[in-house]
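Open question from group meeting: does this chain pack into something compact, or does most of it stay loose? Before anyone orders reagents, we agreed to write out a predicted structure and look at it together. Recording both the input and the output here so the notebook holds the full record.
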Amino acid sequence: MYNNLLEEKEWLDDLWKRIENKLAKTSRRIGVCIPHISKNGKYDDWGGNDIAWWTNGFWPGILWLMYTETKDEFYRQTAECIEQMLDKALTSYDGLHHDVGFMWSLSSVANYKITGNEHSRQRAMLAASTLASRYNVNGGYIRAWNGDNAGWGIIDCMMNLPILYWASEQVKDKRFAAIAMRHADKAMKDFIRPDGSVNHIVIFDQDTGEVLETPEGQGYESGSSWSRGQAWAIYGFMLSYIYTKKQEYLDIAKRVSHYFIANICDDYIPLCDFRTPAEPVKKDSTAGAIAACGLIEIAKYVGEFEVELYMGAAFKILKALDEKCGCWEEDEEALLKHGMIAYHNDLGQVPIIYGDYFFIEAILKLRGKYEVFW
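Structure tokens returned:
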């Protein structure tokens, strides 16, 4: 038990009330669409742009989070409409990719867990089967993206593994979980550096699994430390630990989190990359929200004298996000500003839908109200 949780209750209750009040209004404006980035206060709609885009599950995920807490039928109905829209992606093989876990864990798995919708279960099983089919048996990794990069793997994929663990539980078949664990083991060996920093991309030899190259990906350069990649690793390895109880996954999540905490800025809003020139300063609120979710989970599985390190850091990050990045005006549909898609992206710091999702998820975790979708 985190000793300071009761002391933070007033802030948590107030923050949740602000989230609830804002979403009650902005969700009606956003409605049945697929938001990605907020521009001039309004989220765009990727429903007609790229139905298979990797972030397309985060809005239904937010709606399900809000439904579990409020029981407002608008949230459920809207989430189910978007889930049906995603069927077009699920039946288009060439557009599917390693991020099917992001898309259907937060839409279909969430729906099935909450309502028992059998159609949602079938969708999620198809997504899990698609992800399993991307496993390179010779190389020992799940390949990233499509096109001419069959040897590529990325740290983000750790967050897609839960749909494989879930699928194994559903059909009582260990093959899905075995693939997830083998990819996690490969990531632990070849993505995580001794100091706890993380490669975003690793290019493998398709036949042997040998590491050929580690490009910069969405970070500053090869060998740098893209903070959202750090956050994916923290939370992703914790989710693998929760499903498997393999001690090495908890240990690696702790190592990466120690690096993250040691390198976070004084204001607790992480830089987009922890190894960059001093100027220009580029922050990424989304990395903070994701990392906070993982830190909260670590705190549940460590000894009593370690809890403060992880839970204390999570609180500091979330309070900083609220104070410095929170958008509480109703003319802005997003909850968090200062998100960064990538260090070298021309859009700069913008609100991004997954920042909102993980911020809400983290707050519900702290309030003890979170339904596990992963």
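Observations to bring back to the group:
Residues 35 and 43 are 5 Å apart (CA to CA).
Strands lie at 38-39, 42-43, 135-136, 141-142, 152-154, 201-204, 211-213, 339-340, 349-350.
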